[in-house]
Amino acid sequence: MRLRALGLPRWQRGRDLVCRQTLFQHSTRTVLCASQRRAYATPVEPPQQLKNDTREKVVILGSGWAGYVLSRHLDPKKYRVLIVSPRSYFVFTPLLNDTTVGTLEFRNVLESVRKRNSKVEYVQGWADDVNFVDKFITVEPSVLDPDVGHALTGPRKVNEERTNDVLERTLHAGGTSKTQVPTFPVSYDKLVIAVGCYSQTFNTKGVRENAMFLKDVRDAQAIRRRILELFELARLPIIPEETKRYLLHFAIVGGGPTGMEFAACLSDLIRDDISRLHPQLLKYIQITLYDVAPKVLPMFDASLADYAVKQYKRQNVQIKTSHDVEELRKGFPNDPEARQNQANQVKGRVYTIRTKQEGDVGIGLCVWSTGNKNNPFIEKALNHVRRFPVRSAQITQGGATAVENPNTRQWIIERDARSGSLLIDDHFRVNLTTDAAIDAEVNGDPDHGHDPQPHAYVKDVFALGDATKLKSGALPATAQVANQQALWLAKALNKYPDPEAFAQNKGFTFRNLGVFTYIGGAKAVLQGPPVSGRGGNGNGNGNGGVASKASGLNFRGWIAFLLWRGAYLTMTLSWRNKFLVPIQWVAVKLFGRDVSRF
Amino acid sequence: MRLRALGLPRWQRGRDLVCRQTLFQHSTRTVLCASQRRAYATPVEPPQQLKNDTREKVVILGSGWAGYVLSRHLDPKKYRVLIVSPRSYFVFTPLLNDTTVGTLEFRNVLESVRKRNSKVEYVQGWADDVNFVDKFITVEPSVLDPDVGHALTGPRKVNEERTNDVLERTLHAGGTSKTQVPTFPVSYDKLVIAVGCYSQTFNTKGVRENAMFLKDVRDAQAIRRRILELFELARLPIIPEETKRYLLHFAIVGGGPTGMEFAACLSDLIRDDISRLHPQLLKYIQITLYDVAPKVLPMFDASLADYAVKQYKRQNVQIKTSHDVEELRKGFPNDPEARQNQANQVKGRVYTIRTKQEGDVGIGLCVWSTGNKNNPFIEKALNHVRRFPVRSAQITQGGATAVENPNTRQWIIERDARSGSLLIDDHFRVNLTTDAAIDAEVNGDPDHGHDPQPHAYVKDVFALGDATKLKSGALPATAQVANQQALWLAKALNKYPDPEAFAQNKGFTFRNLGVFTYIGGAKAVLQGPPVSGRGGNGNGNGNGGVASKASGLNFRGWIAFLLWRGAYLTMTLSWRNKFLVPIQWVAVKLFGRDVSRF
């Protein structure tokens, strides 16, 4: 989900859109250009058989763990479900790593949002804005967006082709401004925001441009292609020894489960397949994992993490903790020309990673996996509530003024001060509060400040998954959490369609089912739930780890590996993939991984 | 295979390279720049365990039906086999159509040239030139070439990134000219030219830029993506009715087996899957197949072809024969602005196909399949034999002068006057003759003209597959022919490594095994071999069809379909794919085609 207009940096675009939107809502429609009006005037959802449909319409933003799982579990007899998401499929992320090396195929870990027997509707687009009062969202189509399928890291360079492109000829064949981004409104009865996060780069120099990420299927595809390409390059008789060493040095940044599992998969590929296909290259290969922290896999007990680190050493994966990556650039290490003249650099041959501790190191590929950062949709589009949604919102506390005429106040969406995530209650409802500073300015009335800070929740707007933080305490940004949240919300909405009854329902509690990570060589580490049986909720460390470290049932080695595979098979995958994934495992066992590169 | 240097159109590049090469061979080495010398000075093949290798080295150019099959059947005890090909895999072309709609996955029809247990070596690159005297070829790496995996149609626009890119920094880190294309030599004992053909566009306006082809796996990938994209686009609420009709109009040009099978696969996809996923779009869908000839499937008996055409009609595929396509462009039909201003056209939304008979028609996708055209490597690089390979060539006829001192003549490679294909004898040897015109000019001796035209064959250079024509008569450019040729050559070389014995061996004859085509709806047409049992060789129609039309055993309908599937399963595919293809067929039957688009 994302904001965009006319060549401005994304956050400015966001602001711009919000402004235009505000005008619109205050019914100064004349300000809008003709094409814009036409877009807005389009009937929201025309299908005829739905005209007599009395079901409530639930619009879900996002097709990740939270959004997809929720859509599958909402009762189609009670709800008409519409997913709005830039990508038309769900990625089974725990197995995405396996596709980067060919242990699984890409489609084995994808579930199309459109399915033969599913009643879920779908629109492919980015949500640009939400109108809480009139209950609609604004959607920008993403069908032709080349970024879809890749991890997103922040505002992009404006793509010439896209700005005077995409749909506007189709839309405005009559011939209005070519720079108008086409959008259209989609109405909702209930809205669920499950847009997830972008990838964090900490603004490290060159990372956005030169690193590969591991969040979506096209990332995995690009990595697989690159790995095989590097070996093919290194086989050319004209490549000098030193360059081979650079090309076959694989760097991974981030010692969380994603980075560690990728290292494990890569080392499997090299041991099982590359060793037979390119035996003469083995001596050049190096895998290095960098982490800024003193310890990898922080969510595991020390004994399990130590066991994992030992296994990695045996597989020739160097783990360099307490290393700060300062830059990632194209070109050879210690090449002053390259450092000066980035623009002239050739694309994609040798890269250089620079750490504070070691300086320049030549590499062929850098996979970057250092966690999440906030989605611009959350950060910008949901910044201000332009009009207080009187009918949808329930004021829970606040000064007399707030209750009497809430629209005299500038309401904002409650969010975590540190991370900017949406702060939600245990019913996943979006909460509102007022911006004291803006209030004072707008109303010229400093007295508002003396009232208790008003609070409200929106009855028909929910948020869950990585983009949110529970008021009762942060949960890790994992598939397990998003999955449980979605299941809870689906069950609660199916049982209590009415907001009042829903509000009476007991809130969500997270049940920590443990955490596991594949560590290569058919081994895994598996840390069971803490002995208390539940927990986690309310005492999270907030940064990718499962909270409680009280010793539960732990497994390691091949037993953990078997449990790991078994667990995944029983999970969210469709019957198609439940059928194909084990077959693919057998095929890899029998015939090796497929190394065709295309 | 292809020629390239420094921003010239390809054929000029070819010429340029040839000239430089000629200089080099006449040992005016000082003309070459430093980097060039370095590239040439690189030891040809260093692996140590091969230094004592006494086997003959067979270099195969190409990894298609001819090259790949040959490489698998040459005896590794007798030959060291090296494939040089721009793409690192073999495509099982008869099933490529199935991957465009998801009936099979891409990797199901690919065989990597590098295999775990194979002794075949491989270098990923384009052959640029052949030196018949010193017995080496010149190779330009293609590892990073973005064109690899796509059908090639002719000289490309110069890719900025590629020209100052690819490998030269890696190569010439010292810092010589950035525009030098790196090449390296590869020596051979026997050379097999199996480079195949490019795709024919007849220079129809806009086809190269706007059509999709169906020759390689990335073509299939692009088509699959585009088909699903068009349906997703048409589902957006902002797309007007008329535009939906354009977007969902699929045009296919070429009524040969490839075009017809693609139409069949597309209609299967629509009937089985799209009808359930997008029922509201069915009314907009149209499939039209254009052919300039009055009849499609010309290689089949009239009764089978008529049956096929009837089936297509039932599947709502319109077949428009005797239609001349004049242009394919981006933009809406009958839009004067679009016709004027191609550069401003938006990319890839609606296309317009213009035929002489019907004028402009709006479409969403055009798949172009009108046969083969000559490979520039065949056309240009092999144009002149700079020095007569005295030791390798056997002069079979010719004037006394030719035999006494063949280097006084300008020898050329014998080729078909009309198509430019290499003209080969029934042992697949490349043949030489002299260029009378050049001879006269060089020697100032018109008497040469009175001698019988000299002829020779090269004992250690073979050619087979689509790029060749047998002297005894053209065979169709099919997988069946290339496959049989490769098997014959492998067997003959394994049995008679010595050229003299090889020459005594009985030549190749083609055994027509019949021809079949899938026509959709689990039906096929299968025309058995002509009653005489053999034939074809010598009476081909030369243009994609199997020659003889004497009535043999014909099948049609689902029986032909079952035979068709069974036949493919027993063919060239590896055990991996023999295992995975039927499973994929079952999965599609049970769960439908996968429609994830990424």
TrEMBL record, chains A, B:
UniProt keyword Lipid metabolism, yes or no: no
Domain External alternative NADH-ubiquinone oxidoreductase-like C-terminal: 514-594
Cellular component aspect of the GO annotation: mitochondrion
KW Flavoprotein (keyword) present: yes
Stretches assigned to the FAD/NAD(P)-binding domain: 57-377
Domain of life (superkingdom): Eukaryota
Keywords: FAD, Flavoprotein, NAD, Oxidoreductase
A Pfam family recorded for this sequence: Pyr_redox_2
GO MF entries: NADH dehydrogenase activity
Protein family according to the UniProt entry: Belongs to the NADH dehydrogenase family.
Name under which the protein is recorded: FAD/NAD(P)-binding domain-containing protein
